[in-house]
Design a protein that fits this description.
single chain, about 450 residues, alpha/beta, Alkaline Phosphatase, subunit A, 3 domains, 7-stranded mixed β-sheet, two-stranded antiparallel sheet, about 35% helix
């Protein structure tokens, strides 16, 4: 047996142990291709969800054809270079109903696929509502992957934003760790850079503080009621995960920060620059295996950014309410959504040009990126025909196709995604809308 073949059959850490290589020495020789491939096992599957708001102009978005022979309409034309790695899904609906208006349920039920709690947040119509009753699909996958040494990463997931405005509410959050537990995206590149490449002495200091806080909180357990104990357990679990991540950071080889300018004003005029830097930081995090799951949120539901760099003076949400027969507004919305398609294409290109560390293709070969929206159509606030466009081979779907469904609950899309990533989910979110399970057409 050749040395290379023998290496491939061993776990990298076990190989180092057998050869008597210390951690310090490993940091110097671990870049060798044979060692990098040792024990690599299954490929590193990844998913990135990208959000843009206020629906789309459907006549300029959906291909008329179904199957492999399809024409990309005006909005999707920037995705032409990725035609053979595209999957366009029409007829997938967000069928979550209950409290809240369509913008609220469209945003906060998009990744959670479950109803909002009753609450006191009043939207543009319908009854008031609160936060979602469950966690989002990215956090479900995060929990499962972080439980295994083979798939655990430094952060598990990364929540990124691009000019996400306003405070914390159901219109601005789509990632949830659990019921009533929104996770805020990092929208300032400086904050995201510090999270990924912060000073190691700062990590050591934070670690000691966490240890102290954990010990103090434990002493309170016997004095709390059942509800508070459950809340405490969730809090301690979060602390334990953070401590484990910090320990990995402090004992692993430092990752060299990329040369990326992050000091960019948080202004609408800088939207393209902010988009580029956040994408580059995200790709860097994926390439260095700091996470395998990520969300990239542009603006927010009911977002009203003014695209002056496209020659558009009106706010996005303001335009989205104009009627279909107002041709000028329709064309401006097409330009806005085409710009978002360009951002999606740029992300795909950055992944396609970034090689895997072990030389087995590119990041895009093993990453599925999903572009979606909280509404199907802005002026009708419909939750039918929610845009779902995918690029990349991470989930094992059959690509290069345009598919049409008959009001498929998006719960089943997330179940199918999980199965493609090796996680056997039977239901997700609302169990009634999960009936039917995996959508076989995605893999056929």
């Amino acid at each position: 047996m050749s040395v290379t073949c023998h290496l491939a059959s061993l776990n990298r850490r076990e190989l180092m142990r057998r050869w008597g290589i210390s951690a310090a020495a490993a940091a110097m020789v671990g870049w060798l291709p044979s060692l990098a491939r040792a024990g690599a096992g299954k490929r590193k599957q990844r998913v990135v969800w990208m959000f843009s708001p206020n629906g789309v102009i459907q006549s300029a978005f959906w291909p008329e054809e179904e199957g492999e022979e399809f024409r990309l309409p005006e909005i999707l034309q920037p995705l032409e270079p990725f035609r053979d790695r595209l999957l366009i899904l029409k007829g997938v609906d967000n069928r979550i109903r209950g409290d809240g208006d369509d913008h609220m349920r469209g945003m906060s039920c998009l990744l959670t696929a479950i109803e909002l709690f009753p609450g006191n947040i009043q939207g543009g119509g319908n009854t008031p509502a609160g936060w979602p009753q469950g966690h989002s699909i990215d956090q479900e996958l995060r929990r499962r992957w972080q439980a295994s040494p083979e798939t655990a990463t430094r952060f598990g997931s990364l929540e990124c934003g691009v000019l996400v405005s306003g405070g914390a509410d159901v219109w601005s959050r789509w990632v949830y760790a659990g019921p009533n537990q929104p996770i805020a995206p990092l929208s300032d590149p400086r904050q995201l850079f510090r999270k990924l490449y912060g000073d190691r002495r700062q990590l050591e200091a934070v670690g000691s503080v966490l240890d102290l806080v954990s010990g103090e909180i434990h002493r309170l357990e016997t004095k709390l009621g059942a509800h508070d104990r459950r809340q405490l357990e969730a809090h301690l679990q979060a602390i334990r995960e953070t401590e484990m991540r910090l320990q990995r950071d402090l004992t692993s080889e430092a990752v060299t920060p990329p040369a990326i300018k992050v000091d960019i004003p948080m202004e609408a005029e800088k939207y393209p620059e902010l988009s580029a830097v956040q994408q580059d930081l995200l790709v860097s995090a994926l390439a260095t295996d700091q996470c395998r799951l990520a969300t990239l949120q542009y603006d927010r539901s009911v977002g009203n950014i003014r695209f002056k760099f496209l020659g558009i003076e009106e706010g996005h949400h303001e335009l989205s309410h104009d009627p279909d027969d107002k041709a000028d507004s329709q064309q401006k919305l097409v330009r806005i959504n085409r710009w978002y398609a360009e951002q999606f294409a740029r992300l795909a290109q950055r992944l396609a040009e970034t090689p895997e560390a072990d030389g087995s293709g590119t990041l895009l070969d093993n990453t599925t990126i999903i572009w979606t929206n909280e509404l199907g159509k802005g002026n009708s606030h419909t939750l039918n025909d929610i845009p779902f466009v995918m690029i990349g081979g991470g989930a094992g779907f059959k690509l290069g196709r345009s598919l049409k469904f008959d009001h498929l609950p998006h719960n089943r899309l997330w179940i199918s995604l999980a199965h493609g990533l090796g996680q056997q989910l039977e239901t997700f979110g609302n169990p009634e809308l999960s009936k039917g399970g995996v959508v076989s057409e995605l893999f056929a």
